[in-house]
Recover the amino acids of this structure.
């Protein structure tokens, strides 16, 4: 590979009314500028400013609101000279600006009105709380309506209480629409949501294709926070299925040997999921296969460049609740290869690849096997009593396979402490465990 090629990090922001570059600014500061393991300073740099970065206009994001944040080469934990890094924000919030109360209500009802047997144990408390609040609001609304109908004199105190609750209920509804409207808009494939889902994926895929074919990069690391982790997962799933040439190799090639080694390790990992050494070995072999696929077609600019998926605060832990009716349907989707897993689902002969005749005597990894070559690290803060920690996040190995590296961290803030830490994953204060795990997962000094 050309020694001057760079790494690209694409951060996919989470739900809510996000502002362009607001997420990426803080992310770059903690993973690069203030990263003590990266050494990219020069004697002439201003003191006490950390590793320098530069904001550059870049048309590849198709927006004048977005910039590429670039670095100079620096040395990392490996001790050698690492590559330069370009940071991009995949911004999609404008594509869900039309969130409606009706969409939220429809999604909300789909979560409430399901059999208790279809509610995962880790969200039971939240599900019961939602039911309690719903019944309370309906009861108060019914009381007020009945009082008006029968001309009851409720008294100043009761009317004042109902008025205050109505006011705060309206504020709460607006906040819910602004925040969770994105979730309702994206995770459900309903007619009203299809266009937004298509436009979000189209924009993300165009960015990935452009960077992959530019000839500038050795690696692309995809990072997803919150709902952005589901979007990032989808982008990998779709792009891998498209890139047929990038996942095709000769039977006697280095890629074939790397795949054979990966398969043996994956079998052992599934037999002993808690074995950390096996997981380390599996991810090393994923990276070996990634390098074989990348290097084999480097000259034609069609190689597979996504080496890592890093998810933070990911609702994929609740996939059987959000993306399917229940765990049975989720299992069927994985078996049907609609949802890729790590390790991947196998062919009838137990392999991840199959023989093709064009080109002659070639092997091709199947369309749901991106995680044969893409390492997946999932960082989460376990929730306690619903409001402490991050109730949205959790481990994803149970849903998506033993090849995912789940990293449990504990975060807190100076004043709010452990109260709902969903937005704290790269904050400098109180998220030391998360930052260490994130920096390790990114491997910014790796080519």
């Amino acid at each position: 590979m050309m020694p001057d090629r760079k790494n690209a990090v694409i951060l996919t922001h989470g739900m809510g009314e996000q502002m362009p570059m607001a997420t990426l600014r803080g992310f770059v500061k903690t993973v690069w500028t203030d990263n003590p393991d990266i050494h990219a300073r020069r004697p002439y740099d201003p003191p006490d400013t950390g590793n320098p970065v530069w904001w550059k206009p870049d048309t590849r994001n198709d927006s004048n609101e977005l910039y590429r944040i670039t670095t100079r080469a620096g040395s990392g934990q490996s001790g050698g000279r690492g590559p330069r890094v370009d940071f991009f924000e995949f911004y999609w919030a404008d594509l869900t600006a039309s969130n409606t109360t009706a969409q939220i209500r429809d999604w909300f009802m789909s979560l409430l009105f399901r059999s208790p047997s279809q509610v995962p144990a880790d969200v039971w408390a939240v599900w019961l709380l939602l039911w309690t609040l719903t019944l309370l609001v309906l009861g108060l609304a019914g009381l007020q309506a009945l009082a008006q109908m029968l001309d009851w004199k409720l008294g100043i105190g009761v009317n004042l209480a109902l008025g205050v609750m109505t006011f705060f209920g309206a504020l709460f509804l607006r906040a819910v629409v602004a925040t969770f409207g994105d979730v309702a808009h994206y995770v459900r494939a309903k007619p009203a949501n299809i266009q937004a889902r298509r436009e979000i994926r189209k924009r993300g895929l165009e960015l990935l294709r452009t960077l992959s074919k530019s000839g500038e990069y050795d690696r692309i690391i995809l990072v997803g926070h919150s709902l952005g982790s589901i979007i990032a997962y989808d982008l990998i799933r779709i792009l891998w299925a498209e890139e047929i040439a990038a996942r095709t190799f000769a039977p006697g090639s280095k890629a074939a040997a790397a795949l054979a080694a990966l398969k043996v390790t994956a079998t052992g990992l599934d037999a002993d999921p808690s074995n950390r050494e096996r997981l380390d070995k599996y991810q090393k072999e994923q990276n070996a296969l990634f390098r074989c696929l990348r290097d084999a077609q480097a000259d034609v600019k069609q190689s597979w460049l996504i080496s890592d998926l890093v998810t933070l605060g990911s609702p994929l832990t609740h996939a059987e609740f959000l993306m399917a009716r229940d765990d049975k349907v989720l299992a069927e989707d994985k078996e049907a290869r609609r949802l890729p897993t790590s390790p991947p689902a196998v062919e009838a002969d137990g392999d991840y690849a199959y023989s093709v005749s064009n080109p002659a005597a070639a092997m091709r990894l199947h369309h749901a096997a991106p995680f044969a070559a893409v390492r997946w690290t999932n960082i989460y803060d376990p929730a306690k009593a619903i409001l402490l920690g991050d109730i949205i996040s959790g481990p994803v190995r149970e849903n998506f396979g033993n090849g995912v590296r789940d990293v449990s961290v504990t975060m807190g803030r100076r004043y709010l402490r452990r109260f709902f830490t969903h937005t704290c994953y790269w904050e400098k204060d109180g998220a030391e465990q998360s930052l260490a795990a994130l920096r390790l997962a990114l491997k910014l000094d790796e080519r």
